[in-house]
Amino acid sequence: MPLSFFVRPHEHLVEEYRNILLVDWNPPALERTLELAHHTLYDAGLHVMFRWAQAPASGSPRPQHYIIPPGASDDVVEYINNLNKQKAEAFRKRRTSPDSVPPPEIRLAEETAFHLSVPSGGSFRRSEIIIEDPTGFYRDVRSIVFRLAVEHLLPPLMQHHVTHSYFLAGSLAEFARSEWDDQPQHRDTLLAELFEQIGRKDEAIVLRESALHATNPDAHEYLTKAQALIHAYLDIGDVDAAERELFKAIRATREEHDEEIQSLLGDIYVARGMSLAAHA
Fold first, then answer.
1. In angstroms, how far is CA 126 from the centroid of its own chain?
2. Which residues have CB under 8 Å from 158's CB, separation 6+?
3. Which residue has the higher pLDDT, 152 or 101?
C-alpha cells in the first residue's frame, strides 16, 4: 500500500504561484518555482532533502528516496539508485563535504527530475509514495518547472553534461505523458516544447497540430497554440504551411484577435520575402 500525501495548498503558496505567473520566466524563475514545489510537498507532510544538503539533526526522519518510475530503462534505474546511495551517505556522515557538491545546473536537474518523477493519485505511475493532488496545484506548479527547465536548464546540460541531459529529458517526457494523460492538448504542447529543444522539430510539429486540433476555438489558449504551430512551420522554412494554418486560425476565431493576427501576417510576409530572396 503506497504512502499518500495530500496537497491542500495554503493561501501563501497559491499567492506565490500567482506571482510566478506574472514574472519573467528566466533562469531565476526556475529556482523560485522549484522552491515552491519543495514547500508544497513540505506543506503536505513530505520532507525532501537532496544529497548536497546538510543532513537533519539527530532524531529527524530519514529523507525520502528518489522514486524510480515503473518501466524505467536500466540506465535511469542505475542513475536514480546512485543518487539515493549518495544521499544516504550524506545522511550518515551528518554533513556534506564541499567537493561533493555538484555544480548548480546539475543540482537543478536533480531537483527538477525528482519533482517530475513523483506520481500523483491520478497518474498511471505507481510507487511507494503517492501525492494526492485533488486541486491540481502541485501538477500546475510542476508544469511551470517543466517549461522553465526545457527553456533554461536543458540547453546547458546538453552542452556540458550530456548524461544528465538524457536523464532530465526522459523525466520531462515521462511527466508530460503520465501526469497530463487526461488533458491531451496540454500533454502534447509540453512534449512539443521538449522535442523542439532537443532538435526533433518534425515530431514537435505533429504534436502541436494535435494540441491545436484538440482545443476548442473558443478557448482562450486556441490562438496561442495556433501561433506556436505557425512559428514552428516558419522555423523549418515551410512558409506555405504556416500561411495555411494562419488562414485556418482566422476562420476558427471569427477574425477576432486582430492584433495577434496582424503580427502573424507580418511574420509570414517577412519569411516569404526571405524565401524568395534565397531562391532568386
1. 20
2. 165, 198
3. 152
Structure confidence by residue, pLDDT tens digits, 239-254: 999 999 988 888 887 6
Contacts from 16-23 at CB under 8 Å and sequence distance 24+? 17/137, 17/140, 17/141, 20/144, 21/144
The band of 218, judged by pLDDT with boundaries at 50, 70 and 90, is confident
Residue 43, SS3?
helix
- Three-state SS at 21: helix
In whole angstroms, what separates CA 270 from the centre of its chain? 32
Query: What is the length of the chain?
Result: 280
The neighbour count for residue 199, using CB atoms within 10 Å, is 10
Nearest to 157 by CA among 97, 235, 102, 114: 102
- Which whole-number Å values give the CA distances from 99 to 52, 96, 128, 143, in the listed order? 10, 8, 32, 32
Distance between CA 220 and CA 218 in Å, rounded? Answer: 6
List all residues 6 or more positions away from 154 whose beta carbon is below 8 Å from its beta carbon: 165, 168, 169, 172, 194, 197, 198
The answer on pLDDT for 162 being more than 60 is yes
Which of helix, strand or coil describes residue 119?
coil
CB 232 within 8 A of CB 205: yes
Record the pTM: 0.77
Separation between Cα atoms, residue 48 and residue 162, nearest integer Å:
26
- What cell does 173 get? 517526457
**Residues 167-188 pLDDT 10s:** 999 999 999 999 999 999 999 9
